[in-house]
Design a protein that fits this description.
By secondary structure, the chain is of the alpha/beta class. 46% of the residues lie in helices and 14% in strands. It has one domain (3-301): TIM Barrel (Alpha-Beta Barrel), CATH 3.20.20.
Length: 303
């Protein structure tokens, strides 16, 4: 389903994000997780994308398999980094032929093994340029072309310390043709509400989806902050995790409780959508759904 139709159908969307595993066995296990979460009837699911070829083909294969073997709508991440124009064209053509209707357009970071990679070789440097290009490509299922999402950063874009310019750049991505904004994960809802208000001031009117990631382990919390390029962990959450000591199950319960309260508050404040960063696991997301009383995205969010 085209992302425009999804937001038209649901006043509140619920979506899940996965990353492509590096082995065939792990890929099969992940597909089992995805099939399990399909019971929750998410509005859509997305699959991340490795730069420099690290997981590119597995992303393509997983997205196409979701499209072919499930009833889910798949959104494929697509990054500018390490792509020439022919490669980018080929990817979008393959998606169109496979019935994939939506992408999340990102600038992306060079892979770690290519720290000195010359971005001058890329067809596009910024997500705004990629959005414009995607909008020019035909989608065989729909004359509207691909649905396009872009990233937003409630705590500030790591590459743009000027928060005023940051909103200008986001506005340019939306004006280039983005249909919605999906935010980086955050743990303090006040950051999201402030970001949403600044979007309103910048006349950004597309749906803004809040990114939520439940903490599963103490090590995972540290890793999470690294992956999110400095995500702020509130002191109350740090104290709650500290009280768990070495009990991983207790840490997981704290993480689910915190994320549940985040989602409850977001729903109370009419969030347009909640995007769960699942880390390829289903338990935490299912528990949050149960805690919130959500039966499926249609039942809670039908327009």
């Amino acid at each position: 389903m085209h992302i425009q139709d999804i937001f038209r159908r649901h006043s509140t969307t619920f979506s899940f994000e996965f990353f492509p595993p590096k082995t065939d066995a792990a890929s099969e296990a992940l597909f089992g997780t995805i099939a399990h979460l399909q019971e929750l009837k998410p509005s859509f699911v997305s699959v991340t994308y490795g730069a420099g070829g690290s997981t590119r083909e597995r992303t393509h294969d997983l997205v196409c398999r979701i499209q072919k073997e499930t009833d889910l709508t798949a959104v494929s991440h697509l990054t500018c980094v390490c792509h020439n124009l022919d490669e980018m064209t080929g990817i979008l053509d393959r998606y169109a032929e496979s019935g994939i209707e939506n992408v999340l357009a990102l600038s992306g970071d060079p892979p770690r093994e290519k720290a000195n990679y010359d971005r001058g070789a890329d067809a596009f440097r910024y997500a705004e340029e990629l959005v414009r290009f995607v909008r020019t490509r035909a989608n065989t299922k729909d004359q509207r072309g691909f649905g396009v999402g872009v990233a937003g950063f409630p705590e500030g874009h790591p590459g743009c310390p000027n928060r005023l310019l940051e909103m200008d750049y986001l506005k340019r991505k939306v004006d280039a043709g983005a249909d919605y904004v999906c935010t980086q994960l955050f743990f303090e809802n006040r950051d999201f509400y402030d970001f949403r208000e600044r979007c309103e001031l910048a006349r950004i009117t597309v749906p803004i989806v809040a990114g939520v990631m439940p903490i599963a382990t103490r090590k995972g919390m540290v890793r999470m902050a690294e992956l999110a390029l400095g995500a702020r962990i509130p002191a109350k959450l740090l104290r709650a995790v500290a009280r768990c000591g070495d009990d991983d199950e207790a840490v997981k319960r704290v993480g689910v409780h915190w994320a549940t309260e985040q989602c409850r508050d977001l729903l109370d404040h009419q969030v347009r959508g909640i995007h769960f960063y699942t880390l390829n696991e289903s338990d935490a997301t299912r528990q949050i759904y149960d805690n919130l009383g959500v039966k499926d995205s249609v039942g809670l969010g039908a327009a």
